[in-house]
Structure formats: structure tokens, C-alpha cells
Amino acid sequence: MALREILKYPNPLLRKKAEKVTAFDDALQKLIADMAETMYDAPGVGLAAPQIGASLQLLVMDITSREEEPELIVLINPEISEGEGSEIDEEGCLSVVDLTAKVKRFSKIRVKAQDAEGNHLDFIAEEWFARVIQHEVDHLNGTLFIDHLSSLKRALYKKKRKKQLAEVSEL
Ligand code: NI
């Protein structure tokens, strides 16, 4: 296992639509292990493959609290086939530094996906679990949570980030 670098906005790789996973081989298992290690190290509740520069429809997540035993969830080629209700809650992202904001999401979704071995999954997710899946599935489509904010908020963040990066390059 190895820690991987998490790409940060505005890296263009975060905007690429991810390819379907077709081979459930050793290379995939290694990528999953690296992603899990990177996510737990960050720490974060979810990580999508494009965030480490792998353009594949693959995400890992763990929504257990710190007091609970970790429970890694791996979703491959996930699809949100149904969604209902809506909920607004605070989100952040390992690829969008120094920003959290309220985002509206479905409160209940139906998910079709595959697990690490390629078995087909079909399940209902609600509330926080549903929110994390929607956030991570967005990554697979090149979408970031800031795309759900008002254009003003997004512009402010863009400006702040540009300034931050300019300061870093001046060092
Ligand atoms: Ni994210």
C-alpha cells in the first residue's frame, strides 16, 4: 500500500469524466488499497479515484464515527438510479482546500454499483450516507461540490484559491 497525492482544485484532472472499470484484477485491488490508505490518512470520509489522478469509476468511503470500528465501502461503476427528497447540509472536499459550504442533495437515493470483486450491488442509501455517495459520484463525472454553489460563492472561492497559489509560487 502507498499513500497517494490528492489532487487539488483547480487541477484539470478533477474535471475529467472517469472511465468504467472493466478489469477486477490485482492492479485494481492495489489501487483500492492505496485509496483507502490515502483517505484514512487525510483523514476524509470519502475519496474518488480521479482525486488521485486515476480516471476510473471507483470510490472508497467510510462513514463510521471515530469511536466505531472502521468500515470501508468500495463502490465501482456506481449509478444513482433514483433520488427523492432533499436536504441541505455542510460539505467539504479533500480536493477543495479551505472551504466548507451548504449543498442541497437528495435525502434518499437508490444506488446500483459493483463491489471490489465485481459483484453487483443494488441498495437504498439515506441521509449522510446518501450525501457522501452523491458527493463522490459527482467526482466521477468531473463535478465538484463548489459547482452546486451560487456563481458568486464559486467566484469568491476561485479568487481566494488563485491568490493562495500565487503566494505559494512567490516563496
Ligand atoms: Ni470531494
- Number of helices, where a helix is a run of at least 4 consecutive DSSP H or I residues: 3
> If you compute it from the alpha carbons, what radius of gyration comes out, rounded to the nearest whole angstrom?
16 Å
SSE run: HEEEEEEEHH
Question: What is the CATH superfamily label?
Answer: Peptide deformylase
Overview of the molecule:
With 171 residues, this protein is of the alpha+beta class. The protein has a single domain, classed as Peptide deformylase (Peptide Deformylase, Alpha-Beta Complex), CATH 3.90.45. The protein has helices at 26-41, 127-140, 151-170, and strands at 46-48, 58-61, 73-84, 87-93, 96-105, 108-114, 120-126. The strands form two sheets. The chain has a five-stranded antiparallel beta sheet with strand order 1-2-3-6-7. Strands 4-5 form a two-stranded antiparallel sheet. A hairpin with a 5-residue loop joins strand 6 and strand 7 (120-126). The termini are far apart. Residues 93-95, 135, 139 line the site of nickel (II) ion (NI).
